[in-house]
Each structure stands twice: as structure tokens, then as C-alpha cells.
Amino acid sequence: MTNGGVKQDYYELLGVERDASDADIKRAYRKMAREYHPDVNRDNPEAEEIFKQISEAYAVLSDPERRAKYDRFGPEGQGDMGFGGSPMDIFDIFASAFGGDPFGFGRSAGRTVEVGRSLRYDLQITLEDVLKGVEREITYPRLATCEACDGTGAAPGTSTTRCATCGGVGRVRSAHNTFLGTISSIHDCPDCHGTGEIIEHPCEECKGRAVVQRQETLTVTVPAGIQDGEELVLRGFGEAPPGGGRVGDLYVRVRVRQHKRFARHGDDLQMELPITFTQAALGDTRTIDGLDGPVEINLRAGLQTGSQVTLPGRGLPRRGSTHRGDLHVYVRVTTPTDLTDRQRELLMQFAAERGEDLQPDEDKGLFERLRDAFTGRQ
Fold first, then answer.
1. CA 165 → CA 104, 173, 188, 193, distances in Å?
2. How far apart are CA 269 and CA 264, in angstroms?
3. pLDDT tens track for 341-351
4. SS3 string of 42-86?
5. Residues 191, 162: contact at Cβ < 8 Å?
6. 164-186, pLDDT tens digit by residue?
7. Cα-flanking dihedrals φ and ψ of residue 196, to 5°?
8. Cα(174)–Cα(183) distance, integer angstroms
């Protein structure tokens, strides 16, 4: 998002005033990040670039030191931000706004970043959805960053204080005398439970845990050509760990329902087509319903049950490609069971001309049929 080669103002990118509070900046970024997250906006080719730009803006404006430098010197004063297109950079920023803190903003150096639990969701789609791609809205439960306290765990209007016991490190060292001598060990601070901070006035909404259970609603873009069982990874849409850390991911497993007429084999489709014995003998041209609409099929003379007719390019698309598989039609010759007397007469004439000596069951008398039944004669 540039204007004539000039980088757009970070405040304008996020749609906030220059005197916006940290909470206002975070809320603005969260709203835009959800809208332009590339994992849920695959049909917009500009979404990823916008997501990078707003993430860069948030990374600067959410850090007091960087923001002050930006207000004084502009983008040139930031130096090399390292946004060369690395996906990890922008998704780490996204995680920091939704409960994670990978940059150490407000965290003690050397602390291990907690990672929230990743979630799975099974999404049912149809074969028609595979043909064209589809957008589906899903709702699932997850632990999310408490919006009342912006994930701090402290009541609105208050803040956490550095733990005096561990000095904000979250870890303390203890010594134990043994027969081998004094052994030192490091473990979580018992007063702050490893967070490095003390919450004197817990948030009423989350009870100081910084996360709450809620129903999340997302629009998932399923690309055309996806295979049954494939997973779409939505980074940063899993659970937020209590006390802050990196938000987990959401794995959406796609399940393709079985179709009543078509079977799928890779990019190809298969179907069965019943035809009459006269069509099989003489050949015919028919219009059948393909997966994407009517298609004309030429049935050559002499087809047998199991014969295959291939319609190129009428199968499914290959994911990420314009190539489409084929539709394989397997014919099944059906035998009529409701012949009229005239039709029977014509078939008998046809058989006679082919030198076939037929003796249909219907031509036998009652006595002959009873005899054949008892003797096993055909």
C-alpha cells in the first residue's frame, strides 16, 4: 500500500488518529488483520500485501520507543524493519495482537514464549464445491484473548506490576545442600507463577487469566481442486495461552461428501451410464448431465457393458492450476423387460436373420414349463 512510491502513513493505514491510545491501535489492527488475513482471504490477491503493511504499521505503533521515533522521523527513522516478505514476521505480529508476544513487548528477556493449543475442525463440502472452490463460514469454540483487558489479565484502567520476587524474570534460583555438595536449580517463580508480573486487580471478565472461552466465527476459503482429507492451516486462529504467548493455529480438515453419480479418482471423474441394447448396437448421441452442466457424448456402435467413453477436460481442476481431469463414462447395456407383442415379433425376426434358433420361455406351454421345472431342463 504505497502512494507513488511513498510509503503510506502508519496511522492512516490503521485508520487511527496520531494521538490514538495503545488500546485503540490494537483494536484497529485486530479488525483489519481479521479482514485481510491471507489464510481466510485467498480470493483477494492484494490481501497478503495489505496484511504485511498493516502488520508493519502495528509492529511500530505498538512499541512506545519505535512509535516515538516514527512520530519524530517518519518511516525513514525505523531503519531496516526486516519485512522482506518472510511469512514468519507478519504472523508473529498477528500473534502478538491476538494474545501472543513474540517481540518481548512488556515481557522479560530470556523468557520462553508459551504457545497456545492448536485446534482442528472438520469441514464438509460437496464435489461441486471442489469443482469451483467455495467459501464457508465456520463457528468453533476456543480460548481467545480477553478483549476487556486486552490480554493483560488486569482490570481496565489498571496495569500489572513487576514481580519483586523474581525481578520480572519469571524464574528463581534455589540451592539445595546434598551429600554431593550444593546443587542449584531454576524454576518458575512461586509468586507470579512464571509470568514475571503481579496482577493486583484482576480483570472481572477473565479473572486475571487474560483469556476467555468464546465462539469464534470465520469465513474459510476452500480452493478448487482440494483433495478429501487435505488440511488448511489458519495461523493464529487456535487458542491463546493463559498469561500470554503465541496463539496456536487452526487446522481445517476438508471432507468431500460422496456423490450419488460420480466417483473421484484424483482429478478424474467416473460415472456409469445405462443405455439400451439398440443404442449399444447402432450407436447414438446423447446429452448427459456432467458435474458442471450438460455435455454431449457420442456412443459408437458395438459398445459392450463396461465399455469406456472419455470426455477430456470434464473432470475436476488440479489445485493451483487451470488443468482439469477427464470424465470417464462406463456404459451398462440394459435389457428391456416389458416388450410388446410386436417388439417380440421383431426381435424373433432379427434373431432368425442372424441364424439364432431361439426358444423363449414364453413360447412353451404350461405343461412343458412344469416339466422343465421338475427335471431341471433349461
1. 20, 11, 11, 11
2. 5
3. 999 999 999 98
4. CCCCCHHHHHHHHHHHHHHHCCHHHHHHHHHHCHHHHCCCCCCCC
5. no
6. 888 877 788 877 776 666 677 78
7. 85, 0
8. 8
Is there a contact between 285 and 295 (Cβ–Cβ < 8 Å)? no
Please state, in angstroms and rounded to a whole number, the distance separating the CA atoms of residues 53 and 78: 14
- Residues 300, 280: Cα–Cα separation, whole Å: 8
Full-model pTM:
0.65
Calculate the CA 316 to chain-centre distance: 19
Instruction: Find residue 3's DSSP bridge partners.
Output: 6
Distance CA 350, CA 263 (A): 38
- Distance of alpha carbon 312 from alpha carbon 38, whole angstroms: 34
Cell 511513498 sits at which residue?
A: 6
What contacts 36, CB < 8 A, 6 or more positions away?
44, 47, 48, 50, 51, 54
Cell for 62?
Answer: 505498538
From residue 279, alpha-carbon distances to 286, 300, 306, 318 in Å are 10, 9, 14, 34
Say how many residues make up the chain: 378
**183: which 3 cell numbers?**
546443587
Compute, in degrees rounded to 10, the torsion defined by CA atoms 49, 51, 56, 62.
170
